[in-house]
Each structure stands twice: as C-alpha cells, then as structure tokens.
Description:
By secondary structure, the chain is mainly alpha-helical. It is built from three helices and no strands.
Amino acid sequence: MSSPAAAPDTLLVEQISLLRQLLEKLQEERRLLNSGAALELPPITAAKSELYRAVAELEAQRRVRQGCGTALSADPAADRDELLRRILQVNAENGQIIDALGRFTQGAWKLLFATEDTIYTPDGIAGAQRPSGLIGSA
Length: 138
C-alpha cells in the first residue's frame, strides 16, 4: 500500500493497478459462472471485496492529497475512468448471469417437484412446499 506522504498521481497509479486486478477477478468470476463452478466463487468474492476496499481507501487518500492543490495528470485519470467503466459493465453483466442462473434453478425445482410454490423466499429462506404426489407415490 502507499505511504502517507504519497502524491495523488502515485495513489492513482496504485489505484489503477488494483482496478486492473479487480477487472481480472470479475472476468474470472464470469468464467466460473459460465462453467457452473459455483464452489469456486467464494474466494473470488472475498478477493473482490478486498480489492474494492483497497481501491476506496486509495481514493480517499488521493482526494485528501488532491485537495492540497495538486492536480492529476490527465492520462492516468483517463485510464482509471476507462477501467471503472469496464468494471461497472462486467459487474452488471455478471449480475445478469447470476439472476439468470437463479431463475433457471427455480424453474428446474418447479419442474422436478411439480410445484408452483417457490422453493426460497426473496430473503433466501426455504419456503413451504406442498406435496406433488409424483415422487414416492404408488
């Protein structure tokens, strides 16, 4: 991480490095979502959370330093803004994949158990199911 006396441009360069790592994690997350390897997602989620925290910390430090009258050079700021735009896009697309997988899973449960009742409430709590009569009936 940066020293307390780091200049805004130095902080920005560090931030860009972390944002590149974050984008890589999001792309790795997408590969795992598309491959169905859900058990491999928790470490990615933890790494993303740590990167988000580190980026936010650098941004707070950078804003304090920038407030001292030091202007940012345009090139690193443009790089950072492009990375942020790409991260937002990939993160939104990953969210759409997760939503689609959730809808697919709910539909599969409904077909498998021949029920219209939801398996989980919106809070993720298992809901009551009525017996379908298809499994275990004579």
